Structure formats: structure tokens, C-alpha cells
TrEMBL record:
It holds the Pfam family Glyco_transf_9. This is ADP-heptose--LPS heptosyltransferase. InterPro entries: Glyco_trans_9 (IPR002201). It comes from Pseudothauera nasutitermitis. GO terms for molecular function: glycosyltransferase activity.
Length: 334
């Protein structure tokens, strides 16, 4: 177990999905009595919604400054290095060698200078697990990334697995049951995106069944995607606080393999994930048991890549939405 009152700094990779799994890690430390500060420029806008956690912007804060202030610093290998950035890219490896209380972690693959590190963490004179680690040890094991973070926390620090997702509080946190479906149609990686005509079919079928359907997109793509989905509201938000508020009364979120699905899952929502990957792929939303992965029935290589989008059973999304609504209504009646 960790020492009581341990001062912990956590610096995640800035992508939305990664923010959620590092919140899971922060939750485990907080439950064990640690004083956790979570450094994230993106999450700081929604800090008031995490009243169990100290959330602050990272800005130009560097590794050295945190090492001087905290008993344990957990830094994602891909997080921005702020004032400590050096062009040679080996600054983290040098710091790991020099500081016993720095843990450098990542979801799946450490950079080469850190991949062979076997040094143990030392906190208060006591040795813990390795300084450098990947959460996911086997992408084919069928576990979610949430499961892997739980395993890392337990095996490295002796932390208990939380029984609920990280709490999201604030105004609007009490959801009303309704036929609201939100679609996240893009990711920063175009190869992961399902095609627009498929999302239009899903949206049209849901709307015909009486669902209130909208699309959530990034600000930079808003004007372009309004033309892709002219029948439906296409909305965007300047920060995570407003996005969380928008999702509070949502019944189901449909997305690619993207951060929107992870955020929705952490908030307790039902999710549908459309991906070329198999149904048990590691980055599926894993904060609750109400995720459905829609993988293609067939894939093949051709035309310079994988052909998979025409073979996604998109019609199952409406069935998932109706099942989600029935489950929510049943829970409220119970």
C-alpha cells in the first residue's frame, strides 16, 4: 500500500480517451488516501465537475517542477514536456535515471530510450513497481484499457480496484430518461472513421423511430460537417465542461474508436463503437458493461488499404439504442 497522504501528480496524454483512463488511475490513488493533482489543460475547464480531485492546467509546467513538489509523479511518455523539452528526445530517460519517484507510463508502447528501463520506483524509502511501464501488456487478452489501468495500479502500488467510474458532478448531473442519441462521427485519424453515409443511415433510422439525434464535432470541422448531415443539429463545444453538460441527458452515444465514447462510458452512458477492429479490442469503452462494438462482418485489403466500412452492421445501432432506453427506464422504475 502507498503511504498515507502521499502527494501524487498525474500528467496524462492530452487525448480525450487517455484523459479518462488517467482519471481512473487518479480515482484509485484518491480512494487510497493520496492527495492527487491532475495536470491537464483540457480537463481544467471542467475542474468543478470533479470535486473529489484537484485538477489544474499543465501549461508550461515541466517535469522538474513537479518532481520538486510531489512525492510521486506519474507522467505519460507522450505528454508535452513544457520547459523541460529538449530536441534530443531523451530528457525523460535522463530524469528517470536521476529521480527515484518519477514513473513514466503509456497506454501501449514506451519510446525506445525507456523501453528497457527496469528500475524500481522508490517512495519514502520503500520500493514499488517499475519506473517505466505500459498499461496494456497484451492487446489480445480481451481486457479493456480501464482493466489494464486497474491492473497497473494494483500490481505497482497495491491499490484497490474502484467499484464505480470516476465521479462527474456539477449542475445537470441528474439525468432524465429520454430518446436522445449523440453521434461523434470523426477522430483525428481518418483511417479509424466510419463513413458519413453510414452515420446518416443510423441517424435517419433513429430519427424515424422518434429519437432526438445530433452530431458532435470538433470546432475546426464544424462548417464542413454541417454539410454532411444537413437534417440534424451539428454542434461543437469550446471546452470539455460544455461537452459534459451536453451529454448529461443523453441515452446513448455512437462513435468511432474515439474519446467521445470513453467520456460517455465514464459518465455511465450506453455506447456503440464502430471500428474495423474485433469486438474485444483493448480501446473499447470500458467504464461500464453497456458498450456494443460494431465490427465489420467482412474485411479485405484493396485500393491501398483495408476495405471494411461497407460491411459494418450499422442497423444494429438502433436496436442498441432501444435496448439502452428500456434498461434506463427499467432502472428508474425499480
Amino acid at each position: 500500500m502507498i503511504p498515507a497522504g502521499l502527494r501524487v501528480a498525474i500528467v496524462p496524454f492530452p487525448a480525450l480517451g487517455d484523459l479518462t483512463i488517467y482519471l481512473r488511475l487518479a480515482q484509485a490513488f484518491s480512494a487510497a488516501g493520496a492527495c492527487v493533482t491532475y495536470y491537464s489543460d483540457h480537463l481544467s475547464a471542467a475542474a468543478s465537475r470533479f470535486d473529489w480531485l484537484q485538477v489544474t492546467a499543465l501549461g508550461q509546467t515541466g517535469v522538474r517542477a513537479l518532481l520538486a513538489e510531489f512525492d510521486l509523479v506519474i507522467w505519460d511518455a507522450g505528454a508535452p514536456l513544457g520547459r523541460d523539452r529538449r530536441e534530443d528526445g531523451f530528457v525523460l530517460a535522463e530524469m528517470v535515471d536521476a529521480h527515484a519517484h518519477l514513473a513514466v507510463v503509456t497506454a501501449k508502447k514506451l519510446p525506445q530510450p525507456l523501453s528497457d528501463c527496469r528500475l524500481p520506483l522508490t517512495i519514502g524509502g520503500r520500493e514499488f513497481g517499475p519506473k517505466c511501464a505500459t498499461f496494456c501488456q497484451d492487446g489480445k487478452a480481451g481486457l479493456t484499457m480501464v482493466d489494464w489501468v486497474d491492473r497497473y495500479a494494483a500490481e505497482t502500488f497495491g491499490l484497490a480496484v474502484p467499484s464505480t467510474p470516476p465521479g462527474v458532478t456539477g449542475e445537470g448531473s441528474s439525468r432524465a430518461v429520454g430518446r436522445k442519441a449523440v453521434i461523434f462521427p470523426t477522430t483525428p485519424n481518418p483511417r479509424k472513421n466510419y463513413w458519413p453515409q453510414g452515420f446518416r443511415r443510423i441517424a435517419n433510422s433513429l430519427a424515424a423511430a422518434g429519437w432526438d439525434v445530433s452530431f458532435v464535432v470538433m470546432p475546426a470541422e464544424h462548417s464542413r460537417l454541417e454539410g454532411e448531415y444537413p437534417r440534424f443539429p451539428v454542434v461543437t463545444f469550446p471546452d470539455l465542461d460544455q461537452l459534459i453538460a451536453y451529454l448529461q441527458d443523453t441515452c446513448i452515444v455512437i462513435s468511432n474508436d474515439s474519446g467521445g465514447g470513453h467520456l460517455a462510458s465514464m459518465m455511465g452512458l450506453h455506447t456503440v463503437t464502430i471500428t474495423r477492429k474485433p469486438p474485444n479490442f483493448v480501446w473499447r469503452p470500458g467504464f461500464n458493461g453497456h458498450n456494443t462494438v460494431l465490427s465489420p462482418l467482412l474485411t479485405f485489403k484493396g485500393w491501398g488499404g483495408h476495405v471494411w466500412r461497407p460491411f459494418v452492421p450499422y442497423w444494429r445501432a438502433q436496436t442498441c439504442a432501444e435496448e439502452a432506453l428500456r434498461r434506463l427506464v427499467g432502472c428508474r422504475r425499480a
